[in-house]
């Protein structure tokens, strides 16, 4: 049997590594969503401003 503290520290290390991966993935996903959203919104804004300018 491994020492309980060793098991706990290993679990914490793997948990931290996992949460860092999750955060990285979430931030990448958020950036992708925002870029996609911006690409959708920009043409709409341009169309609206063109209508106002005419």
Automatic annotation (TrEMBL):
It comes from the Eukaryota. This is Bromodomain and WD repeat-containing protein 3.
């Amino acid at each position: 049997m491994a020492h309980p503290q060793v098991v706990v520290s290993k679990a914490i290390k793997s948990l931290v590594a996992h949460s860092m991966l999750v955060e990285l993935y979430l931030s990448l996903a958020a950036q992708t969503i925002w870029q996609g959203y911006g690409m959708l919104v920009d043409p709409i804004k341009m169309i609206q401003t063109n209508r106002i300018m005419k």
